[in-house]
């Protein structure tokens, strides 16, 4: 790069030097022409010359005069001649009396003119002016030729050459020094990489940024976006170009925007943003040991979270089956023992009463709820609540058919609300109860979950990710305070609303638009 820049500077400087040399030569020649013309006209207008050229011996009078003028002005030659070309004066006395070489016709016509002509002294720039008779403006009695030889002009140009060379060398030195400084700075900023490695690195980095399945954000020290890849745009639902914008201007959730703006280190933090659950990692960028901002990676946790919710529901259902199996074994042992004691009537009464109670709950849920996934969830949560010492009461007026709402979202909303209510009821005084009601009015599904717990202390923050009243050893962002945030996200995703009563006793109400005709299941 330095050699290339130096070569360019050298070519430019030499070109400018050649142009300056040509301009200097043209300027010297123009000055010589002007000087010769003005000198010829001045001598032609001299009364001494006018009188001498018509006198008996013009040479005796004019030769000393013109030689003195020539010496004083540095002119190469001054020749006074008759209209028939006979020289009256000449720097070389041997040429006096001989014919003048060159053009004289314009001067004989009364007009001063200039030309370049090769005479006895070699090529010269000369001016020829007419000498008019005393008292006349048309009668030409003699001619005056004043010339500066080309050699003399060349000497003047050569005299200007040292200054021109100094200027050219100074410009060349400044150009080379500037090129060296730029190359050093470029070398330092690119860490010694040349053009080919930089191009290859850019191509590879661009391919990686577009191909990687993790979102990537690069933020400067002020929290402004410097780079964002395609996956990050998709996950954060960003506009086409957000480079240079502050993270607070990207339309992110308040908590995620605050995390990115603080630029604190973060490892696998779970954030809810829009319709997605994101795992966020953030670390400072320190190229060369100096901090220039932060690198943020984003992973889509939405589908995994939905699967986790469904898995929790299945696990809860399995736990309820285990609990029911344990209870069934106890009831079976009790029934067998009553039979062995000879109390058959009491054994039948005991067995049928327990069976009727369990069947009654199942029949009521299946009859009231037409969504199979939701019905299974309620049966599982009822068993889990019973095992934990909480009574889950389903409102007798509950009646919900097919709603068209995704089953995963229903599980997320109802399951998390019930889990939260059961946990809250356990913190209250007996009797510990949770009441659930579901109904459809005006093409909207309404869900109400109420518990006998202490209530919600901060309704404005209850749906924020990470906000919780539960004791947990889990680090911030890893599963703590996420359930109600997921509820709010699922509700927003389905165009619904969710409200909470501050207490005493927690009360959550959800309203969702149904996507299919819903009513009392048959």
Automatic annotation (TrEMBL):
* Annotated SUPFAM superfamilies: ATPase domain of HSP90 chaperone/DNA topoisomerase II/histidine kinase (SSF55874), PYP-like sensor domain (PAS domain) (SSF55785), Sensory domain-like (SSF103190), Sporulation response regulatory protein Spo0B (SSF55890)
Residue ranges constituting the Histidine kinase domain according to the UniProt record: 410-516
User: Would the keyword Cell membrane be found if you checked this record's keyword annotation?
Assistant: yes
The protein's annotated catalytic reaction(s) are: ATP + protein L-histidine = ADP + protein N-phospho-L-histidine
Please give the SMART domains that the UniProt record associates with this protein: HATPase_c, PAS
The answer to whether UniProt assigns keyword Membrane to this entry is yes
Which biological process annotations from GO are given for this protein? regulation of DNA-templated transcription
Top enzyme class, one word, equals transferase
Compartments reported by the entry: Cell membrane
Q: Which InterPro entries match?
A: 2C_sensor_his_kinase, HATPase_C_sf, HATPase_dom, His_kinase_dom, PAS, PAS-like_dom_sf, PAS_fold, sCache_3
* Catalytic activity, EC: 2.7.13.3
Under Pfam families, the record lists: HATPase_c (PF02518), PAS (PF00989), sCache_3_2 (PF17203)
- The membrane spanning regions, by residue number, are 159-182
Under the cellular component aspect of Gene Ontology, which terms does the record hold?
plasma membrane
- Tell me the PANTHER family matching this sequence: SENSOR PROTEIN CREC (PTHR44936), SENSOR PROTEIN RSTB (PTHR44936:SF10)
Q: What is this protein called?
A: histidine kinase
From which organism does this entry originate? Modestobacter versicolor
């Amino acid at each position: 790069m330095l050699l290339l820049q130096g070569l360019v500077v050298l070519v430019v400087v030499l070109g400018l030097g050649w142009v300056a040399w040509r301009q200097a030569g043209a300027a010297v020649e123009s000055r010589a022409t002007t000087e010769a013309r003005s000198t010829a006209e001045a001598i032609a207008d001299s009364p001494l010359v006018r009188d001498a050229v018509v006198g008996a011996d013009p040479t005796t009078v004019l030769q000393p005069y013109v030689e003195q003028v020539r010496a004083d002005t540095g002119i190469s030659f001054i020749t006074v001649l008759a209209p028939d070309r006979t020289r009256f004066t000449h720097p070389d006395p041997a040429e006096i009396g001989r014919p003048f070489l060159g053009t004289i016709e314009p001067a004989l016509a009364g007009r001063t003119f200039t030309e370049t002509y090769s005479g006895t002294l070699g090529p010269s720039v000369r001016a020829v002016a007419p000498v008019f008779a005393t008292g006349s403006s048309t009668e030409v009695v003699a001619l005056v030729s004043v010339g500066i030889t080309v050699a003399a002009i060349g000497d003047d140009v050569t005299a200007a050459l040292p200054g021109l060379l100094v200027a050219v060398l100074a410009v060349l030195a400044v150009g080379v020094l500037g090129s060296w400084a730029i190359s050093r700075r470029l070398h330092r900023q690119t860490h010694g990489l040349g053009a080919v490695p930089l191009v290859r690195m850019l191509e590879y980095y661009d391919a990686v940024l577009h191909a990687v399945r993790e979102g990537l954000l690069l933020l400067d020290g002020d929290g402004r976006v410097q780079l964002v890849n395609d996956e990050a745009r998709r996950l954060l639902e960003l506009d086409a170009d957000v480079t240079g914008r502050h993270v607070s201007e990207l339309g992110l959730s308040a908590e995620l925007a605050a995390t990115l703006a603080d630029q604190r280190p973060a490892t696998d933090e779970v954030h809810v943003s829009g319709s997605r659950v994101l795992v966020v990692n953030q670390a400072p960028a320190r190229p060369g040991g100096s901090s220039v901002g932060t690198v943020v990676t984003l992973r889509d946790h939405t589908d995994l979270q939905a699967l986790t919710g469904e898995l929790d529901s299945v696990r809860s259902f399995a736990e309820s089956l285990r609990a029911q199996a344990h209870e069934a074994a106890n009831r079976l042992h009790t029934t067998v023992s009553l039979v062995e004691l000879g109390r058959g009537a009491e054994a039948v009464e005991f067995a049928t009463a327990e069976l009727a109670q369990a069947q009654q709950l199942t029949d009521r849920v299946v009859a009231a709820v037409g969504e199979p996934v939701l019905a299974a969830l309620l049966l599982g949560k009822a068993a889990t609540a019973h095992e934990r010492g909480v009574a889950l009461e389903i409102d007798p007026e509950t009646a919900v058919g097919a709603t068209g709402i995704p089953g995963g979202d229903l599980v997320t909303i109802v399951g998390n609300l019930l889990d939260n209510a059961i946990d809250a009821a356990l913190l209250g005084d007996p009797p510990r109860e949770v009441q659930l009601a579901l109904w459809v009015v005006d093409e909207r599904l309404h869900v109400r979950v109420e518990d006998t717990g202490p209530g919600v202390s901060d309704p404005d923050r209850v749906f924020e990710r990470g906000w919780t009243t539960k004791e947990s050893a889990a680090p911030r962002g890893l599963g703590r305070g996420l359930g109600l945030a997921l509820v709010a996200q699922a509700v927003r995703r389905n165009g619904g609303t969710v409200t909470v009563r501050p207490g005493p006793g927690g009360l959550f109400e959800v309203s969702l638009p149904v996507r299919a005709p819903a009513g009392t299941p048959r």
